[in-house]
């Protein structure tokens, strides 16, 4: 295990040539610093406080638990990731949580490095084969161009400065590398569906989102373009029949087999939940 802090000089140690040497990286002050930034910005309400993930630590890998929908989204995100084009290819998973993407990457040939603020989640991610970095997505302690793929699943809508996280995602990508993400749009419909409605269902924990942080899809596309990534977005949602079956079974206390959990399907509008994918130029 390596213990290091952002800015302590170990960035140089994580150049593309040496990233293979990382096993686990725990950086100390980043989580607190981010909380302070949120406080300074007046955002330190119970909503979106990252410490909620500690309280919910037991939920990550429960298929019918509070993070069930993250499992469905992880599968849909992984479907956008092609098999690795070269041996030793690196996928950097920003805001990896407990590593829910990991099972869906099996056989694709990537080394999966996950970056997250929440240690309790990272411990579980490491148990699922993810090489974990305890750090902030807005100051990632990994070298420029080290990643073949950067994933940012359900992250940006939790980051007070989402533009900084996007800049980091693009910086990490090698030329030709792929960015895949999903997030919530900054619309009235999104606030209604993803907060007021979804937080009353067992698919989204109450208070996990601060709708003021939701990310306008056009602004995201423009920001990615500024950093050399031509992002394409499309709306997605859980398929309704599968969602209703899942809710019914869950209400009856019956588990849903993995092959019958709701599928995430494209939808005409990106006004609520959307996926993005794009290739870094150069
Ligand atoms: C909704 S969860 C998504 C987790 C994972 N990507 C998934 O889809 O299963 C959001 C995650 O982002 C992490 N997070 C929030 N803000 C962060 C930041 N500034 N830097 C790194 N991770 C952050 C949280 O700790 C949490 O694990």
TrEMBL record:
Annotated InterPro entries: Methyltransf_11, SAM-dependent_MTases_sf
Family matches, as Pfam families: Methyltransf_11
Methyltransferase type domain mapped to chain residues: 92-181
PANTHER family attached to this UniProt entry: JUVENILE HORMONE ACID O-METHYLTRANSFERASE (PTHR43464:SF23), METHYLTRANSFERASE (PTHR43464)
Name of the protein in its database record: Methyltransferase type 11 domain-containing protein
UniProt source species: Micromonospora gifhornensis
């Amino acid at each position: 295990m390596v213990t290091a802090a952002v800015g302590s000089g170990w960035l140089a140690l994580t150049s593309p040539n040496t990233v293979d040497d990382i096993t686990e990286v725990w950086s100390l002050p980043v989580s607190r610093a981010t909380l302070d930034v949120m406080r300074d910005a007046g955002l330190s309400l119970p909503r979106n406080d990252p410490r909620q993930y500690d309280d919910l630590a037991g939920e990550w890998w429960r298929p019918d638990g509070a993070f069930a929908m993250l499992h469905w989204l992880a599968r849909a995100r992984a479907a956008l990731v092609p098999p690795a084009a070269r041996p030793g290819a690196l996928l950097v998973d920003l805001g990896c949580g407990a590593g829910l993407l990991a099972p869906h990457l099996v056989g694709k040939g990537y080394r999966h490095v996950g970056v997250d603020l929440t240690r309790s989640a990272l411990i579980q991610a490491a148990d699922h084969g993810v090489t974990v970095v305890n750090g902030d997505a807005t100051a990632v302690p990994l070298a420029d161009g080290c990643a073949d793929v950067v994933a940012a699943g359900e992250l940006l809508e939790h980051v007070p400065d989402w533009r900084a996280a996007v800049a980091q995602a693009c910086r990490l990508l090698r030329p030709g590398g792929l960015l895949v993400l999903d997030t919530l749009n900054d619309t009235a419909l999104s606030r209604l569906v993803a907060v007021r409605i979804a937080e009353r269902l067992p698919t989204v924990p109450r208070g996990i989102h601060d709708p003021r942080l939701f990310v306008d899809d056009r602004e995201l596309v423009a920001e990615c373009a500024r950093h050399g990534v031509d992002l394409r977005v499309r709306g997605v949602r859980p398929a309704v029949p599968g969602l209703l079956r899942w809710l019914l079974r869950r209400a009856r206390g019956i588990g849903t087999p993995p092959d019958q959990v709701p599928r995430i399907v494209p939808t005409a509008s990106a006004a609520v939940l959307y996926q993005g994918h794009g290739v870094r130029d150069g």
